[in-house]
Amino acid sequence: MAVSASEFAALCQKSRRITDDHYSACCPAHDDNSPSLDIKDGDNKLLLHCYAGCDFASICEAVGVKQSETFLEKGQGLSKVNREQTELDKEIVWLFETLRKEKKAFSNADENCYMDSKLRLARQS
To answer: What is the pTM of this model?
Structure first.
């Protein structure tokens, strides 16, 4: 199981949540008094960026996390943001197709939103 951004942030000093899957913290790989590490959940891996220049391996090693633990295993799924987008796309497609059966009229923007959602879902298949 991959280490999430929230789990990794909990291992660092002065961590704070910026958004659902984005955190900042003091970098454990160097003497850091002010948060300089960005921690995010990517599509299939944990993303770490130290603004002081520490490399990924050093940051992981400093908190005792193996680099292999920062990647999703095959079949583990999408990041939270992508899961939410997928659910939203499914709802848009379902709603559009349901209303289309009832002969509802749609604007060009509605048609474009529907097509974008269909394309995103098709790419995941």
So the answer is: 0.58
